[in-house]
Amino acid sequence: MKNIDKELYSRAFKIYGASQQLVVALEEMAELQKELCKHLRGFCPKTDIAEEVADVQIMLEQIELYFNISEEIKEYRQKKLIRLEKRLNAIEAGDR
User: Is pLDDT above 70 for 68?
Assistant: First the structure.
């Protein structure tokens, strides 16, 4: 995360408040969910999905900064990627 982003995110939490920003994060995730559902039904251009992914990523970065959980996220992400790789390897080897 760039320092300029951190400054911007900190300002957003200071001006809007933590509760409001967390609500916005939930709203953005719901909007992404809606666009993905529309895609599955064949009614959503990729640009709409890209826009909502960007919104969610911005809000997730704000949450990461607010709760000061960057290291924890890195650790969990790595563990979950290793788990995914093991599962995929098992499937590919026929060991479901």
Answer: yes
